[in-house]
Design a protein that fits this description.
The chain is 67% helix and 0% strand. It contains three helices and no strands.
Length: 69
C-alpha cells in the first residue's frame, strides 16, 4: 500500500511540474504556443495556451492533492 501511495504521489508531482513548466511559458509537446495549445487543451479552434495564472492554479491544486496519499 505504501508503494501505491508513493507511485501516485510521484505521478501527481510530475503532472504538477508539467503545469508549472507551461505556466512559465514552456511549449512542449508542440513547436510553438499554438501547436502546444492544440495538443494539450484538446478543443478545436484553440490557438493560445491557458493563462499562467490558470496553469499555476492547477499546479497548486495538484500539489495539494499530492499530500493526500
Amino acid at each position: 500500500m505504501i508503494f501505491l501511495a508513493f507511485a501516485l504521489s510521484l505521478v501527481l508531482l510530475l503532472i504538477t511540474a508539467l503545469h508549472v513548466y507551461w505556466g512559465l511559458g514552456g511549449i512542449w509537446p508542440g513547436q510553438d504556443a499554438a501547436s502546444c495549445a492544440r495538443a494539450v487543451v484538446g478543443f478545436r479552434g484553440v490557438d493560445d495556451m491557458p493563462t499562467p495564472f490558470a496553469s499555476f492554479a492547477v499546479a497548486a491544486c495538484l500539489c495539494l492533492a499530492t499530500l493526500w496519499p
